[in-house]
Sequence to fold (425 residues):
Amino acid sequence: MATLAVGIDVGTSSVKAVALKRTGSGYSLRSVGQADIRRSEFHPEESPQAIAEAPLRALERVSQDSAFSRKPCAFAVSGPRVAPRLFKFPSIPKGEVEQAIRFEAEQIIPFDLAQAALDYVLFDEAMEEGKPVMEGLVVAVHKEEVDKRFVLLKSAGFDPVVLDIDTLALANAYSETEGLNERETVALINIGARFTNLSILHGPRRCFVRDIATGGDMLSRAISEIYGLDLPQAEKRKREASYTPLDDLEGGGFADDFGGVGGGETEGFGDTEGFEPIDDGNEEYVLLDSDQTGFESGDTMSDADDFEASGQTQSGMDAAQRISANRAVLADALGDLISEIQDTFKYYINRRIIPRVDKVRLCGGTAKFPDIQEFFASQLGVPTELWNPFARIDVGGVAGKYPPNFLDELGPMMAVATGLAMRAL
Fold:
């Protein structure tokens, strides 16, 4: 069995790569790579040919690292041509399982299985009305999608040998690094540019997955519409905001010389009211724990006069305005995503597949947008935190290669690639 493995995550907006080595105590990080994929909506100056070649060029930049080039790697696909489905049937002899699953798949997969790569995983046997039943997850991926990704990786100098899907790679990374207890249900939400991967883990042996066709691009569009920016400016501003909160964008724009950082049971679940867009009247200002104003989390002021009378600084007022601005953008951009996630939670809870969702972990580049954790927690009614898979991986051997805090900043983007590398071991 290999001790060094590589995972390559080819997303819509960037390529992510992780090389891991298995150790006696877990995993150690050997290398990490990331390269942006230039897209026409955000780089209108690029030629159609350059845009068509952008994924290959990004992969080639990553492959310059010898830890990745010509190494066997695991890769994944996601989107509408990936069909994961739950199945359940009475318990049968092991020798008949594969044929039964294929028959079941023919009934529930939305395209011809002759054109699909098919695999499945069985959950632990369950009892239903006093009789044993087999439950599991079957996944079909259209062969065209697999072939396209395979050729792309080979052309860039990689050796793709293991196929997975993003949602299962995500689940793999979490179970390997964080572990799961039998009674806990965790929802992993990986917010990509065009798709969001949702993996719901109930104990160590049950996983329910879904791709949702919305993501971080909607934030860029919301920033564009709310602040009167063109899409390239809005995308740039979104990336900058992932490191600093949205500033006051007076006059619908931002300073030309603004510096940025590029490239970058129902317990536990309930319906909550959405955030409303900023009103010019009595907006409620909520100050974060990190705000140096003497307020504790949850303290509120109803208007500017009361705020000033409290003796707090104007910088505190500005911080509160930024929080409200961030949440208004999030509500506008991600309302549909929240609704899809709520519906998914309700589906599994109402069918008694899971008892509740205990916690949510966010990852992906968009997961670093300011106030997004608080926004998801409020909307979903579930404790929500940013998840960095590198936090439980030994990074000491490579930390010196990168600037301080670089791996902490990059880690939430690398969950799928990390799970893929673990899958290849």
Q: What stands out?
A: The longest strand covers residues 131-142. The domain at 4-216+338-424 is CATH 3.30.420.380 (Nucleotidyltransferase; domain 5).
